[in-house]
Amino acid sequence: MYLNDKQIKELEKRANSIRQDIIKILLKAGSGHSAGPLGMADVFTALYFNVMKINPKKPEWQDRDYLMLSNGHICPVQYVALAHAGYFPKKELNTLRQLGSRLQGHPHRGTLPGIDVSSGPLGDGISQAVGLAYALRMDKKKNWVYALMGDGEQNAGIVWEATMFAGKNKLANLTAIIDRNNIQIDGNTEDIMPLEPLKDKYEAFGWHVIDVDGHNIPDFISACEQAKAIVEKPVLIIAHTIPGKGVDFMEYDFTWHGKPPKEDEAKIALNELRTLRGKITSEHE
Amino acid sequence: MINKKAKLVKNLFSKDIKLIPTRNGYGDGVVEAGKKDKNIIVLCCDLTDSTKSGSFAKAFPDRFVEVGIAEPNMTCLAAGMALRGKIPFISSYAMFSPGRSWEQVRTTICYNKTNVKIVGAHAGVSVGPDGATHQAIEDIAIMRVLPTMNVIVPCDYEETKKATMAVAKLKGACYLRFAREATPVFTTPATPFKIGKAEVFKDGKDVTIIACGPLVYEALKAAKELEKEKISVRVINNHTIKPLDTKTIIQSAKETGAIVTVEEHQKNGGLGSAVAECLVENYPVPMERIGVNDRFGESGPSDVLLDIFELTSPFIVKAVKKVLKRKA
Predict the structure, then answer these.
(1) Distance CA A199, CA B61 (A)
(2) Could you state, in order of their start, the residue ranges of all structural domains in chain A?
């Protein structure tokens, strides 16, 4: 769908606001992952506020599109996006990772509206997404399945079992997205276990692959549209992102993969996000 | 006395009793279940014939999914399919599913609350010549420990067929365990079967044998032997390990005062452990366990292996005598 400048600005503003909430809830939780959620804020904004057919008031709507988060540890970005979209009250975001909360440390299906899959153990989510896409096609349903994976997740053998199956069965109703931010817990992906040439690997498995800047919302949306137009294969979008995007001291630093900001760090981060790194000098909320 | 209500075959101890593998009961049962419910689908990991999924593949080719040798993937695929109302039966050897796929079973079936049935063929040392790598004797333990999981070990062809059709209607996670070899078909279509309800196949007052799987037949043989020595033995077919029929087990402990459990599985964590846990908390009585004693299987003829691992009726007889000494 064509986006005018105003619509693009609105989506970018939404992504920024989602980033601020990610910082706030991670600070409150005192544990959790920072880099991945910040890096994927633009992709989640595009998916929940433009690409996907959803009804936040009816999370179980049978004709909905699905977002299957395979790298469950980046769930803060999904939780914030769901709250912004209206699946549950924003104030509940403050309960992240707390006792009795519907916002579990890793997503749990059936607990929080909008979460369609329990995930965290890496690789399980993409495999479930492939099964879901297969079942939808069996029933000739039009729902679309989006599956989000991490790049470090590509180390897991089950990813390749699942993607091999999807390629064999030409699951064209499936769009997988890899957050290609080049980091995982122990370091940079190419040091831990080299993934490149990642595109060639997926193509060899019978997938169509699109590379895109994961921070360019219009480009990402257009990649999703292209994916829907490809009817004979599953499509992988490799979203090239900057881990920790939007917060200078977190960007590109793998040590921010698995920890939350402390209070002083959160203050700096929020200030950066509110002022777009000093570009805006007037007071913001 | 054999319990008349159990409706066992008339030629129970005759040499011409029919022999059919339990896995065939799955093959026939899942086709029957598939006729009744179009949501039932079967997934298989390159073992269509030996898991007996082939009959379903033939009857419903559009509802059969070949996954290749990828059991963790099969597990999660099934969970994903169940999100849209499918009722997947995932079939492989027990050693690989659930043996290889335990975490996926835990996360995507149990924790995720999906309606998936895991059917593990070729369980036990009676798999025979394939040896230890293919003889699952830990599967009951790793499945029964999972919240929401139901665990069923049918005793013969007829019961496997009934169990397959019953779990098709049960909403939730289930593990069904089968054996490879042909074993006596000693129950009949009229034999009662209800998930979670242990059946008294033979009544007795001195001791109770609680068994599961094809070894229930060995337990009946042992009871017959012991009758000759005026020892009155109750035999319970405990096909459902989870949820355990604690009522029947506690009642038998009270009425007979001694228990022997029998299973083709590690003593650690299987039926014997489940029964012991129940009795320790409710009504402790002397108890002996027949099972594999913390070791791996090995290659050999099926019947010989069952003897070497001391799982057959002469060893059950010994265990009964031992427990009776402790009771006195």
Answers:
(1) 34
(2) 5-275
pLDDT of residue A171: 98
Of chain A, the percentage scoring pLDDT greater than 70 comes to 98
CA–CA dist B162, B155 (Å, integer): 11
B38/A contact by beta carbon, under 8 A? no
Residue A283 predicted with pLDDT over 60: no
Among A118, A157, A165, beta carbon nearest to B108: A118
pLDDT of residue A282: 61
Nearest to A110 among B72, B76, B113 (CB): B113
Supply the DSSP symbol for A248: T
Domain ranges for chain B? 20-184, 192-327
A127:B113 CB<8 A = no
Among candidates A110, A130, A158 on the partner chain, residue whose Cβ is nearest the Cβ of B80: A130
- Confidence (pLDDT) at B1: 83
* Global pTM value: 0.96
Cα angle for residues A62, A64, A65 (degrees, 5° grid): 135
Q: What's the average model confidence in pLDDT over A145-159?
A: 98
- Which residue does chain B place closest to A128, by CA atoms? B80
CA atoms within 13 A on the CB side of B300: 15
* CA-based nearest distance B297→chain A, Å: 28
Asked if residues B50 and B26 have their Cβ atoms less than 8 Å apart, the reply is no
Say which CATH architecture domain B192-327 belongs to. 3-Layer(aba) Sandwich (3.40)
Q: What CATH number is given for B20-184 in this structure?
A: 3.40.50.970
Residues on chain B touching A157 (C-beta within 8 angstroms): 72
Q: Which amino acid, B106?
A: R
What are B198's two structure tokens? Answer: 């242990």
Is A128 in contact with B77 (Cβ distance < 8 A)?
yes
CATH class, range A5-275: alpha beta
Longest Cα separation, chain A: 55
- Is the interface score ipTM higher than 0.90? yes
pLDDT (tens digit per residue) in B151-168: 999 999 999 999 999 999
| Distance, CA of B214 to CA of B100 (rounded, Å) | 24
Asked if the Cβ–Cβ distance from B80 to A127 is below 8 Å, we say yes
pLDDT of residue A102: 97
Q: Is A106 in the B-facing interface, judged by CB distances under 8 Å? A: no
Tell me the mean pLDDT in the region B113-121. 97
